[in-house]
Amino acid sequence: MIGMLLGERFALEREIGSGGMARVFLGRDTVLDRPVAVKVLNPGHDETDIGSRFRREGRTAARLSHPNIVQVYDAGEAELDGKKVSYIVMEYVPGGDLKGMIDKRGNLSEVDLARLGAGAAAGLAHAHERGVIHRDVKPHNVLIDAYGEPKLTDFGIARALDATTSQATRTGAYLGTALYSAPEQLRARV
């Protein structure tokens, strides 16, 4: 995959992250000559609930435009390695994630916590004002830009307030990361 062109525009340079749903590559937009992050759905998920969530992530995040939310530039389907894949092209945020920052630096100062928390809260407020609930806020999903400012990412399990509950999750199912969830969410009281 590395060195390949996706959608006749995005050159994949190297893998920078992966999960059960997708892999993320550092890429280059060959038209605008800028670095981008390209999230590619893992094979086999296209016609599943995971594939539906992935495509919804692209549409949901693209509705949001805020300095503390990773910008979505493009989304679609293309052929890669002889297979049809779904992808999302986003702003490349070079500073890693908040989890990595905490692991590297240890406890953050009160000033850093206040600044990072205020930025993340501003991004969440923007999303909420537009009817989007993130549902998986955790240090892994807060990226740090080149100026040390936070940017929310990974709206893969976000719920649009205009969607019915059955579109977002099945009854009794919980999406999110248990370690970072409120106890009432885990008990299905929210």
TrEMBL record:
Enzyme Commission designation: 2.7.11.1
Residue sites binding ATP per the record: K39
Highest taxon of source: Bacteria
Keyword terms: ATP-binding, Kinase, Nucleotide-binding, Serine/threonine-protein kinase, Transferase
Coiled coil: none
Catalytic activity: L-seryl-[protein] + ATP = O-phospho-L-seryl-[protein] + ADP + H(+); L-threonyl-[protein] + ATP = O-phospho-L-threonyl-[protein] + ADP + H(+)
CDD domains registered for this protein in UniProt: STKc_PknB_like (cd14014)
Keyword Membrane: no
Pfam families assigned: Pkinase
Protein name per the record: non-specific serine/threonine protein kinase
Record organism: Rubrobacter marinus
Lineage, top ranks: Bacteria, Bacillati, Actinomycetota, Rubrobacteria, Rubrobacterales
